[in-house]
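Deliverable D5.2: sample structural annotation.
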Amino acid sequence: MDGGGVRTLASIRFLRLLEKEMGVKIHEKFDYFVGTSAGAISCLALAAKSFSTIDLEDIWAPSNLKKTMQSSSWELRLGLLQSNPKYTSVGKREVLSSYFGQSTLGESNKPVAVLSYDIQKRNPVLLRSYVAEDQNISLVDAADATSAAPIYYPTAKVGDRYLIDGAIVANHPVLHGYVEAKKLFPDTEIRVLSIGTGLSKRSLNGEASMKWGIVGWLMHDLFGLMVESSLDHELAGELIGEYYLRVNSPIDSVNRRLDDRSKSNIERITKMGEDWWDQFGERAVKLLSE
């Protein structure tokens, strides 16, 4: 499952419709879960805590989104960007704690991995429930680290590591997950359902971009540009072939901003997930039923 802030609700709505159609809980149907950022939080809830998709939607309820997006002193003044992240991590961790409690990765019911990035060692980090060195990491710390999106949230400290959102390296973690699944299930036919959070296809002004500094790029969705590469999808399609299904689409009327929690935008996001069901639902059921 991809990262994508509040747009993850489209992914969850698709899974809810899939769960209803198949009559089997998502956490029972799949053998391995991998996610980045918001998608990773969902994967942890499914794999480690056996949430239903209805429970999953509750994590992203309006009251929780409000608490998660508690503003710091981030703002624009005289054209200069404040040095602090837009939000604190306090509310986010409170919400995560209310669902995950004191549980650790090692207590997960199914194998799960979430992608983050170590800013000191400058390398991607998979926090994995099935690897001894990661098993004592709390679900809250793992979820906080994988979703510590630069600009939006502070860097997360996990043990002696300083970690940020895994979208820096792969917002779509399918290749990382496929490699891990091959290790866990050797000589097994692996089928992959990969769910995105929508793609922003809004054209940017190329000539104007030649003059943008940090504020200009941030105003034009720098982080969104970084997380919406299609390269991993293209490689996965060639590598896995017919047993790989990618669920995603352009965002159309959905706000490209990852933190627009307005009622109207959430409704559009949910509708996008329902449209995905109309487009990909039959293929998803077939993939998982053969």
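Annotation notes: The first strand starts at residue 33 and ends at 36. The beta strands are 33-36, 76-77, 80-81, 112-118, 123-128, 156-158, 161-165, 192-195, 244-247.
The annotation will be released with the project's public dataset once the embargo ends.
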